[in-house]
Design the sequence.
């Protein structure tokens, strides 16, 4: 019985330091969900305008807790 490598690898949410603007959180989320980076960044800006405290705290916490992609 053989397994393909894609089944053995676990998908993990990480910061993307290669395509980052601030800390790489939005780029990492976009890569994890296979979305355009610009769409995730626009959504983050809209969330920051609509809910400034909650979105700001969430971004800072994500920047501190998400591991960087090796």
Sequence:
């Amino acid at each position: 019985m053989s397994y393909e490598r894609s089944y053995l690898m676990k998908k993990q949410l990480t910061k993307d330091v290669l395509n980052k603007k601030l800390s790489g959180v939005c780029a990492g989320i976009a890569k994890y969900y296979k979305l355009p980076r610009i769409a995730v960044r626009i959504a983050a800006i809209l969330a920051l305008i609509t809910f400034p405290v909650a979105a700001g705290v969430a971004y800072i916490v994500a920047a501190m807790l998400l591991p960087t992609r090796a």
